[in-house]
Amino acid sequence: MKSLPKAELHLHLEGAAPPAFIAGLARQKKIDIARVFDERGDYAFDDFPHFLEVYEAATSVLKTPEDYARLVTAVAGELAEQGVVYAETFLSPDFCGGGDVSAWRDYVAAMQEAALAAEAQGGPILRGVVTCIRHFGPDRARRAALCAAETMGDFITGYGIAGNEMMGRPKDFAWSFDLAREAGLGLTAHAGEWGGPVSVREAVEDLRVTRIGHGVRAIEDLALVDRLAEDGIVLEVCPGSNIALGLYPRWDRHPICQLWERGVKVTVSTDDPPFFHTTLSDEYDRLAQAFGWDEEVLAGLNRVAAEAAFCDAPTRERVLARLGGTG
Ligand SMILES: [Zn+2]
């Protein structure tokens, strides 16, 4: 499914780092992280706690704005290979300047320049969604929201929350989301991955987001599913990630098809693709196999993603035009 033009809404920039890129950066900086790779040079981990450990070690080599600019270039190259024409990447001021607004500006400038250069060379259109880290708590989330509001523009277009879903409650972060909303940023929140349907309901009600990262466990409460459908809440579904982390045992047991059949606006993304040994093309191939979804269905999901994208109207038109191109 590589040739099908695609749009992706849920991609953690650090989590999309190709292993060869991270290994190269580690060599340059003389940091020994050999333990995070298997003999073929892929990221290797046994279970969820080990995944977090490997993820942290791998991304610890990313430090300066220049490192992040090079990362954007590397990720844009990978996305272009998968036929991705538009992608939103999650970026965290906590990892880029420690939540300091002026340091964050330098990172944003470097990443935006790299994103524009990649696009000029035929790569995907890239936008950044600032994410606070839930387990760092509401105070650091406020700083992340301030960083997002201060740098909102052609590149930074959204605000969201990632991190450990089991820590705290969505309403603890309402202040940050209010600030981001007033600044004009699009809003999304991770929920309904490790947390149950209640976490999805609270994210919608207390944070007033238009999109949910994952949200798949809404399926455990059909009244909630119907509400998501009625309200037009968009789910950023990452099936390969859910299966790799053991949320569902097999592709044909993943609830994305049920959610779609019940009228929920679902989209498909990869989360942290090289860590889960997946690509967006692989996800599409697996969905086609598991549910018999043809290119028309998959192209429809991409249009939903374009409509839900955190970008301005002219960009949305460009994305829709690119999606409507050669399939
Ligand atoms: Zn995620």
From TrEMBL:
Keyword Metal-binding present in the record's keywords: the answer is yes
Which keywords does this chain's UniProt record carry?
Hydrolase, Metal-binding, Zinc
Residue limits of the Adenosine deaminase domain? 5-322
InterPro entries tied to this protein: A_deaminase_dom, Ado/ade_deaminase, Metal_Hydrolase
Top EC class for this record:
hydrolase
In short, the EC number is: 3.5.4.4
Under which name does UniProt file this protein? Answer: Adenosine deaminase
Species per Swiss-Prot/TrEMBL record? Mangrovicoccus algicola
